[in-house]
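An instance follows:
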Amino acid sequence: MLLAAEHEAHTGATSMNPVRPFATKTARAAYIDRRLAELYPETPIPLAHTDAFTLLVAVVLSAQCTDVRVNQITPSLWARARTPDALSRLPVADVEAIIRPCGLAPQKSRAIVELSRQLLERHGGRVPRSFAELEALPGVGHKTASVVMAQAFGEPAFPVDTHIHRLAQRWRLTNGRSVEQTECDLKRLFPREHWRQLHLRIVFYGRQQCTARGCDGTVCEICRTLFPSRAAGKSSRAH
C-alpha cells in the first residue's frame, strides 16, 4: 500500500486516474522517433540530384510544387545546364519555359539564374556551407537552406515543411503558431543526431499515412496510438 501511495504521489496517478503513457511531449516524441525509424529505416532524399548545386536548385523549384513534378522537370534543365556557370548564362526566358510546370516560373527562373551568378561571383562557383550565406542567395529561405545543409553537407538541421508542421500539431508536439516555432519545439524534443533523418521520416509518413485528407488525427497508426481516446479530428493551423 505504501508503494502504491508513493507511486500516486509521484506520478499523480490514482486508480480512478491512471497514468497515460503518452501524456507528455517527451514521451510522444520518443515513441514517434522510435516508430518512424522502424517504418523508414532508409531515408532517401525525394528530390533527384547529383551534387549540392543541383539539390539547391531542385529545392528552390519545389516551393509550392511536388517533388514528383520537380523530378520530372529537372532532367530537361540539367540537359541545358547543371553547373552554376552554365545556368548563369542561360536566358531567364529559356529557364522559365523549362520549369513552367513547377509553378511560379517567373520568380523561380529569375532566382535560380541569379543565385547561379552569385555563386560564381561570391563563392567560387560552390554552394556555401553556412545558413547565413545560403539564405543570402535569391530564392533561398531558411527551409531551403536547412535542406541543403542537412542533405548535401550532413549538418544537423530540421527543415519544417507543410507535412511536418501539420503532423507536429496533430501529435501535440507544438502549438503550431508558426513554422519557426515548430522547428524550435521539434529541435528541443528530438536528439540532434536524429534531425537529418527524422525530418524525412516525418515527411514520408505525412505523405503516405497521416495525410491531410486521409487522417484527421484519429485514423493513422501513430495518431491512434498516441491518442486512443481522441474523439474528434485534430485540425491544423495554417502557417
The domain at 52-151 is CATH 1.10.340.30 (Endonuclease III; domain 1). The first helix runs from residue 2 to 11. Confidence is low (pLDDT under 50) at residues 1-17. The two ends are 50 Å apart (CA to CA).
